[in-house]
Amino acid sequence: MTRRELDAAGITDPALRAAYRRCRELNAAHGRTYFLATRLLPAEHRPAVHALYGFARWADDIVDSTDPGADDGLRGARLAALQRRLDEGLQRGDSGEPVVAALADTARRYAIDHGHFADFMAAMRSDLVVTAYPTYADLRGYMHGSAAVIGLQMLPVLGTVVQREEAEPYAAALGVAFQLTNFLRDVGEDLDRGRVYLPEDLLAGHGVERELMHWCRRTGRQDRRALAALREFEALTRGVYREARPGLAMLDPVSLPCVRTAYVLYGSILDAISRDGYAVLHQRAVVPRRRRATVAAGALAQLAAIRLRHRRRSAPVPARTPPTPPVDPARPVSEEVA
After folding, report:
1. Could you give phi then psi for residue 322, rounded to 5 degrees?
2. CB 59 within 8 A of CB 168
3. What would the pLDDT profile of 154-192 be if each residue is shown by its tens digit?
């Protein structure tokens, strides 16, 4: 499958092909929902998506590193080194670091605004020092770099049926919706890292302080105040999905099954959280494999229909043969030939 994707994308350099393969491995290992949705894209677009995800995954892993001795100083140094590689790679269009090489090539091929990568790295650096957000507006400011720009990076790869600028707000909102979903799913794990992404004013409105969240995490017990805050955050997140939904119709039809699958499956994480009784402070909610398979099967059927319509439209129309005029038996054969 990887060879077919790289061939379809016109990536022939052996080192660059290896770089894209590395990004694909990162996507397959760490982003099950994302990777499944990517499989629904045309083969020629998949390497670019793997490159964008692979780079974001690498930076995120630096921030969330659990290596012994990986304090904020070491994480900051690693991010700074990655920033230097990124800047050099984007400037040159190549890099000796495989993941950066694939990203730089993708940015060049699809003319992706380099400012999106700068904003993303700024958000990653802030994670080393910011552990809470007073308001939802503050959280949205952070998510511009950590999530919205991911949607904006993806948009040139996916393609649109409208002017790209018209679709950008919806792509950004979808990136935010996905990250809000992750924040709710991972609230317990983030708490262990010393971070709380749920806005402080939302928590305070239900009488929730960080110590109460730690108590729930430590004891495995629920608290009605924490449950109410989690429900409100879920409702807020579903509102952002509604905000992003009109953008689906603006995408190139061949990309739509991929994005719609991600939209449905990430939304299904919210359903799983609700079904589990908002136990996210104790366990991670998981979308059942059967649900993921059903959604993917529906998307595959939709994709097959889209491709069939495309083939029918692009099939050459058979040339119409002009009718042969009747032969006049009284006319000499030499005149018919002439």
Report:
1. -65, 145
2. no
3. 999 999 999 999 999 999 999 999 999 999 999 999 999
Token pair 């305070």 in the structure block, residue: 204
Distance CA 63, CA 118 (A): 16
Question: Are the CB atoms for 183 and 196 separated by under 8 Å?
Answer: no
Coil, strand or helix at 160: strand
**Stretch (H or E) spanning 228:** helix 224-244
Residue 160 sits at φ, ψ, to 5 deg, of: -135, 160
Distance CA 152, CA 160 (A): 12
Residue 324 scores a pLDDT above 80:
no
* φ/ψ (deg, to 5) at 269: -65, -40
How do residues 16-37 score in pLDDT, each as one tens digit? 999 999 999 988 887 677 788 8
Confirm if 296 and 200 have CB atoms less than 8 A apart: no
pTM of the model: 0.86
- Three-state secondary structure call for residue 223: coil
Furthest C-alpha separation in the chain: 109
DSSP 178-208: HHHHHHHHTHHHHHHTT---S-HHHHHTTT-
